[in-house]
Specification:
homodimer, 224 residues, alpha/beta, D-Maltodextrin-Binding Protein, domain 2, 2 domains, 7 helices, 9 strands, globular
């Protein structure tokens, strides 16, 4: 890490990973101080364009992923859950809610083309249940605000909800087929050679990063 | 509003506006139920591409804005503030912090090309103070997590921080030249005619929307 160039680490990740990245970067920078980190957050299809244009050193993308020539390294679960405001009548239900019933409720969904929306669409298609959408929001923050305002229930990555939010604002509902387990994968352009710092971070993500993510999600699921 | 087509409202807004939009949409949908709303969140340069491609009915963009042929309708302030974790030593300072001092601290900044970063760069250039960046994060959520982890102080839109966060997690620091007042503007493609529902929402934003935003920001600033 003596080379000045190797001190730059350019990362790009899907939106669901943006909350956990500072925790991982904090742990990494404690071991490797003086690294300059830049983190871009973008939707899956833009990450693939950036990967193609070799804009960043490493990527965290949703997995599986079609139409990509680069090898993907799946490394950790990204569970999707159904959330409601803590005072929603469904929070007290002891029997799991059927997918059919969920589809007939006021469902707030991500935009088409988001990884989360696509996973939800695949699930509903599998069970041949139509999806009705009255409110379609292109950000996890807008979705959380809308759920807090009582506009409906939503399906989000557990990684986008903090432990504090699960203790005070939201509840994870018992719904058939949920948590719906998706995965994150690491990717990089195979046509360039990774810098020493990128190789180090790649290994760090697979071991320490994975641990940070799993520990956070286990703590959240243990609330229920 | 009898026309089925006019029931669709496609909005696209800058990331700083995504938190307040559900509140405005809630108020709007109470007056006009059965409207289907879709909200896209994207960086400024992508909003201009979408505007050019006529992808959405109405846009909320940062203002002023160069290189755009469409008229902009500035409608409300978007104040930028300097935030620190509640236990940061600067929180107790009574004298305002100088810009020079801020530039020498661990400053967590947005990525280049974001409206917030550009406003910060214009300010520092005006006073000929160099900007040092160790951590550059492409999302307000990653920035808030990093500030909470004690990695540094940051400059963000007041609209991205909730009243609850200001009461429990973050403090707005007294810094020279801050709050730095930016503006939001409404835009739409002049080459298409606005639907009745879009015209109604345009007027609603300028009157009720503005009120919702101002009331929220006044409540936040009164904490200090």
């Amino acid at each position: 890490l003596k080379n000045i160039k190797s001190r730059q680490l350019k990362l790009a990740v899907v939106a669901t990973a943006k909350y956990i990245m500072p925790h991982i970067l904090q742990a990494f920078c404690q071991q490797y101080p003086k690294v300059n980190v830049s983190l871009t957050v973008a939707p899956q299809h833009q990450l693939l364009e950036r990967l193609h244009d070799k804009k960043d050193d490493l990527y965290i993308v949703g997995y599986p992923l079609e139409k990509v020539n680069t090898p993907l390294y799946p490394f950790v679960d990204n569970p999707l859950v159904v959330i409601a405001r803590f005072d929603h009548p469904w929070v007290k239900r002891t029997e799991p809610i059927a997918l059919q019933e969920l589809s007939q409720s006021s469902l707030i969904l991500h935009e088409p083309n988001s990884s989360t929306r696509e996973a939800v669409e695949r699930l509903f298609q599998k069970f041949k249940i139509p999806l009705q959408v009255q409110l379609e929001l292109g950000s996890n923050e807008a979705i959380k605000e809308a759920v807090l305002l009582g506009l409906g229930v939503s399906i989000v990555s557990l990684n986008t909800i903090s432990l504090n939010e699960l203790q005070h604002s939201f509840a994870v509902l018992k719904v058939e087929q949920f948590p719906l387990i998706q995965k994150w994968a690491i990717a990089y352009s195979e046509t360039i050679s990774l810098s020493m710092i990128s190789q180090t971070f790649f290994k760090f993500l697979q071991k320490e990063g994975k641990k940070v993510i799993q520990t956070a999600n286990q703590a959240k699921l243990s609330v229920f």
